């Protein structure tokens, strides 16, 4: 691993040129290579920083050093702009870090065994929660409430599927929510049932709220703890900015408290979680732009997810005839919010997975935007798009906010869900790029792992971590390394109206950067997965440093 040295540069006391007088750097960074994502100077070795912003990049940056200037020596390391994850769920990551992650469970029995041990330690009646079960790990059959209930009869259990769009609950939870054979499906949701009408314990999309609403809300202290823990994990992984997709008033308050205490090590671009009182308050006050917390967008949900068969399609699922998924909003709902947003200077970011949902959102946006514009409305995921709809993204200046690891996670079963024709419009990054549509990358953590290097790898290979399938899944949709790096940096900044202050290591911009143990622009793809974050800096301040 490259050695990190942070020292005072007293030896620079007399090092001064006319061009640098009066602009002394408080930090000099030297590395084997610095990829700036700035076309004016793509690669350098030295960077000078003053008061959290970049003074200069290149060999001439040495001229800004003075007595007392800190120096970070990174021999053998690669520096890139701080990674920007354009779609995350911070509270959920914090909760996951404190509870159970069943992403790799191969059977329902594995999950139940873990929860049975947990139940022994908990007072009777206390809720037990967990995340990330995935029925595709064991053949595709949804689990059942009875399996949970026999093992854990005295504790209500609520387990969220990996995509966040389905829940598996036990009989105790169903009873507390009053869900039985006669309970109707809520709008935008579905209760899976046995032939006799009784609930199986699987709740899709808005049916989840029937049970989730019974779980006691976390206290402000717990929220702060979870968000802080998630932020530290982000810093450890090289993320310097995240776009939190769907924030409540309670989470917003927790963020503000963390900022006031100087306990938020990264920057957060928060999306208001749908219509409601918080949205109404921001419509009154207007956007909030800050150093650590910015609020100038709203997150809407047009449909569910493909893994739980709630994404909205024109034609039925290939592996579930008769089911076309669920629309969670109507076109007029999206149009109404979009008009409010335009009037008050907000951005609209709408979750859309299926082709029907994507078209619904595109048409709603188009009716408000009218043509080319700088509103920067986004479609979150843009996962399966009808062939004739791609150009609408370009026509109305809509950003495709996508998650590369969704493709490599879903490729095991995606074609079975949608068939050989529709899958050609799935996870189609190259189609967007060819049209000039900005593709801003993210992870959707904790749906996927939060490591941006894994997202970078997925973007350039379309392979799993074992290198399968050979050549990549629909390899014609791969990004180049430069495109992938841009999608995780400057495109993410653009997607938040922040490209003038971050996203590249350019003079005048914020000194948000990451030092890596390997050159991800040159090493074999498999080596990217082994690359470690050595150091993360936000505004020139080191917020994470790995082992020396």
How would you sum up this structure, described in words?
The chain is an alpha/beta fold and 548 residues long. Among the domains are: 1-82 and 503-548, Roll (Urease, subunit C, domain 1), CATH 2.30.40.10; 103-212, Diaminopimelate Epimerase, Chain A, domain 1, CATH 3.10.310. It is 30% helix and 23% strand. It has 18 helices and 21 strands. The protein has helices spanning 90-98, 108-121, 145-151, 171-177, 209-212, 220-236, 249-260, 277-285, 331-344, 355-369, 390-395, 404-410, 414-422, 429-434, 452-461, 481-487, 490-494, 525-528, and strands spanning 5-8, 27-35, 43-50, 53-57, 70-81, 83-88, 128-133, 157-161, 166-169, 189-193, 199-205, 239-247, 267-273, 293-301, 347-352, 378-381, 399-402, 439-441, 513-516, 533-538, 541-545. Strands 1, 2, 3, 4, 5, 19, 20 and 21 form an 8-stranded mixed sheet that branches. Strands 6-12-13-14-15-16-17-18 form an 8-stranded parallel sheet. Strand 20 and strand 21 (541-545) form a beta hairpin. The longest helix is centred in the middle third of the chain and has 17 residues, at 220-236. It starts with a strand and ends with a strand. Mean pLDDT is 94; it is low at 8-20.
């Amino acid at each position: 691993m490259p050695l990190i040295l942070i020292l005072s540069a007293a030896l620079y006391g007399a090092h001064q040129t006319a061009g640098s007088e009066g602009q002394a750097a408080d930090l000099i960074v030297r590395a084997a290579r610095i990829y700036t994502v700035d076309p004016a100077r793509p690669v350098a070795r030295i960077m000078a920083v003053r008061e959290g912003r970049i003074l200069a990049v290149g060999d001439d940056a040495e001229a800004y050093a003075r007595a007392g200037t800190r120096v970070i020596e990174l021999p053998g390391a690669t520096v890139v702009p701080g990674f920007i994850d354009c779609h995350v769920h911070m509270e959920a990551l914090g909760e996951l870090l404190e509870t159970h992650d069943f992403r790799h469970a191969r059977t329902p029995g594995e999950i139940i065994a873990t929860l049975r041990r947990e139940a022994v330690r908990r007072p009777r009646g206390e809720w037990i929660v967990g995340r990330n079960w995935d029925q595709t790990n064991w053949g595709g059959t949804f689990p059942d409430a009875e399996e949970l209930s026999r093992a854990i009869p005295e504790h209500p259990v609520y387990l969220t599927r990996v995509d966040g769009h389905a829940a598996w609950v036990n009989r105790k939870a169903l009873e507390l929510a009053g869900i039985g054979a006669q309970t109707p499906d809520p709008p935008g949701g579905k209760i899976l049932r046995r032939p006799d009408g009784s609930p199986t314990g699987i709740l899709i999309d808005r049916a989840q709220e029937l049970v989730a609403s019974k779980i006691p809300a976390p206290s402000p202290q717990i929220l702060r703890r979870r968000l802080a823990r998630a932020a530290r994990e982000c810093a450890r992984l090289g993320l310097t900015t995240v776009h939190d997709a769907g924030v409540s008033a309670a989470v917003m308050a927790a963020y503000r408290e963390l900022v006031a205490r100087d306990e938020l090590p990264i920057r957060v671009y928060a999306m208001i979680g749908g219509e409601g009182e918080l949205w109404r308050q921001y419509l009154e006050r207007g956007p909030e732009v800050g150093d650590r917390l910015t609020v100038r967008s709203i997150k809407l949900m047009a449909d569910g997810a493909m893994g739980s068969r709630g994404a909205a399609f024109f034609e039925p699922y290939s592996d579930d005839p008769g089911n076309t998924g669920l629309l969670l909003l109507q076109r007029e709902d999206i149009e109404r919010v979009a008009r409010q947003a335009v009037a008050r200077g907000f951005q609209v970011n709408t979750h859309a997975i299926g082709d029907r949902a994507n078209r619904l959102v595109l048409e709603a946006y188009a009716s408000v935007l009218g043509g080319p514009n700088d509103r920067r409305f986004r479609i979150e995921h843009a996962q399966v798009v009808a062939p004739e709809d791609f150009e609408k993204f370009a026509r109305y200046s809509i950003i495709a906010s996508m998650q590369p690891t969704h493709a490599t996670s879903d490729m095991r079963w995606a074609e079975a869900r949608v068939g050989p024709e529709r899958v050609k419009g799935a996870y189609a990054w190259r189609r967007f790029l060819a049209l000039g549509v900005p593709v801003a990358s993210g992870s959707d953590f904790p749906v996927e792992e939060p490591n941006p290097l894994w997202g970078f790898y997925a973007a350039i290979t379309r392979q799993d971590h074992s290198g399968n399938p050979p050549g990549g899944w629909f390899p014609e949709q791969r990004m180049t390394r430069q495109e992938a790096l841009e999608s995780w940096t400057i495109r993410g900044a653009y997607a938040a109206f922040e490209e003038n202050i971050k996203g590249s290591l350019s003079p005048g911009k914020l000194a948000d950067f990451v030092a890596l143990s390997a050159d991800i622009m040159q090493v074999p793809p498999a080596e990217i997965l082994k690359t470690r974050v050595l150091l993360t800096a936000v505004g020139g301040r080191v917020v994470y440093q790995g082992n020396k």
